[in-house]
Amino acid sequence: MKNYMFLFLSMSFVCADVKNINVKRSGGFYDTKIPTSVTAKMPIVSSKLDRTADGAGSTMFSIENSGYYYLSSDVVADPDTGKTPDSIIKITADDVVLDLCGKSIYHYDTTAFGAGGIVISGARDNVKICNGQIDSVTVGAGGSIVIDPGTDNYVKNVVIENVTIVSQSSTNDGIGLLAKNVENLIVKDVTTQNNQNQGIQITIDGSTKNKNCILENIIVQSSGGVGIDIDNVNQLELKNIATASTANKGISLNTVNDLKMNKVTADDCDGSSGSGIGIELNTVIGCSLEDIRIQRVYDDTTARGLYLNTVKGGSFSNINIIECHGKAGGDNVNGLDLSASENLIFERVLSQGCYTYSGATTGIVKALNIDSTTNNLKFKNCSFNFSHDTGSAYGVYIDSSRVINFDNVEASQNVGVAVGKGFYITGSSNNYFNNCLAVKNGATATAGVAAGFDFILSSTSNQLNGCKARANYCYDTSATGFNIDGSILCYLRDCVASDQTNTNDSDVVAVEVVGIKVNNAHYCRIINCEASGNLETTTTSHANNLAAGIYITGDNDPAAVGNVVIGCVCENNISTDRNSYGIYLRDRGSSPYDGIIRSVVSGNKLNNNRSNAASPAGYGYGYYDNCANTTTLLEKNYSFGHGACTDGGTAFLSNRNMNYYFTVTYKGRDPRLNVVKDVDIMNLNAITLNNWDNLNISVSTDTEY
């Protein structure tokens, strides 16, 4: 037996009672109270319902007059066999309240309603739908609730409040709530569950723009498409929003001016082909996001937690992005992903635990990705940690961007098989890093490369102040605290690069463990920094193994021009197999090794750099310059206590054959001169100068230093 629709509706024709249904701002949101002066009249029983409605534009019940309507019992929508009405209830009047009164509208038939369950049709004003549930409504091209004024028309002053939409299926759109061309819309205390496609969609039809939309206290769960999908809005506010288990993006906002989001979560977004995104902002001007949580986002190409594309002007605070990761085939994961955006401020942002699936050997994971000319950003008190990958892992990755300010930002414990780096900057300029931290970033396989801070490929005029790179490690090949490669005018002041190391003790691959490395880079300033305690642990001999505090090198012609090292401390750098250096200038080009020129090495403390290998295999140097015909200014440096196993070390060594001012003397004799201890003179060749024409040597006593 067919289920009949028992729909008891009451309406009042006292239009004054329902005019302007309080769709206006109150404390930041609309006041959604039903007018208490409205009373129920003229009940409508099921015999008045049109179960024979059929075809486009038809409806089972039409609200054509202003008034207050309500359900007095549950409703089962059951059209006659073969009939396909466009909607269950259609509202074609202004000043209407439809109160479901805690009841439900059901639809178990496989027949699809062409437009939707409840439809607000035409250019309406002042409509409210509230207090009930819409269950299992099958639609063809609409949703359970549809607001559709027609092309280039508006629906104004609409409230959808305290409504639950569940278990919808669809042959086409299958959207929970679909709104087009709205002005002054509030959706409050609404839940959508198990929708085939979008949970909530706000869009346009024609050349209009949605205006002043607010979503508050919304739950979207188990959506077959985007959880909340909104485009073309001036003034949009989302507050207390939760999306979960969406088969696509959690929230997608496109072409929005003036956006506010507060207390929003997007969890378990499972996409494919790049659609796996927690929250997406695309072409947004002016935004404020606060208290946002995104976790467990999946994709088989690129998974993204928070994706900002062409976002201009805005602030982001208390943002948590956790465990974004790839699934089979997913090579790339970005926790916070920015592209072509500018003038944004981020404070208290956490992006951590991003990873690819286990088979993605070429995968790249970035807790923070900034690319495509993204400029003028500020990050304060943020953390980008614990990215891990079977390919490459980065905390912060910056490409082709400029004027980005990092203040008290951490990028630590990002570990990849091939690459593990805290901060990676390429092709970017005029960026500033203050009190930033990169600790225990690592690469775990043969030929792996690790770094705390890595500036490469034409990155210019970047500044670091008070930054620390500690305990970054490689399996073999290279571990560096600060790496400046192919860059110009990088400036490090009061930075610390300590305790870098390698974890494999027996590989035959050459291993470099360095605090601060300058490679094929020019006019860099390293001022008042510390590069100490860096340890190369390999026991299998290789001629190029080394540990160094500061290493200036290159193989271009010239390799390094105008680099300055002043007031630094380079102590206790140790090589287990080969040589250790406080400061090492090495031209890796072809003879005569004159590619490192116009350097200044002044006022540095270069003490106790040692090799644990027996001489001549290993040696400890305070300062080593292998460059011929260069013009390095070497002055006011202290170099004590270097050694190698049972043998000694060298305080200063230079292969230069120029007549150049170089003197070692007692403290205070001449403030420009370099200093060694007399104990170093007794135990080792304190100074080695090849083909030197001007050499005056004096030594200090032990008590003076």
Can you describe what's shown?
It is elongated and about 105 Å long. It starts with about 25 loop residues before the first strand and ends in an 8-residue tail after the last strand. A hairpin with a 2-residue loop joins β1 and β2 (about 30). The chain is about 0% helix and about 55% strand. With about 700 residues, the protein is mainly beta. The protein has one helix and 59 strands. The chain has a 39-stranded parallel sheet that branches. It has a domain at about 1-60 and about 85-230.
Mean pLDDT: 83
Question: Ends: how far apart?
Answer: 103 Å
- The chain-level structural class is mainly beta
Approximate shape: elongated
* Strand element count: 59
| Biggest pleated-sheet summary | 39 strands, parallel
Number of helices: 1
How would you summarize this macromolecular structure in one to three sentences?
The protein is mainly β. It is 1% helix and 53% strand. The protein has a 39-stranded parallel beta sheet that branches. A five-stranded parallel beta sheet has the order 24-27-31-35-39, with no helix packed on it. A five-stranded mixed beta sheet has the order 43-47-51-54-55, with no helix packed on it.
List keywords for this structure.
705 residues, mainly beta, 39-stranded parallel beta sheet, 5-stranded parallel beta sheet, 1 helix, 59 strands, 1% helix, 53% strand, disordered N terminus, disordered C terminus
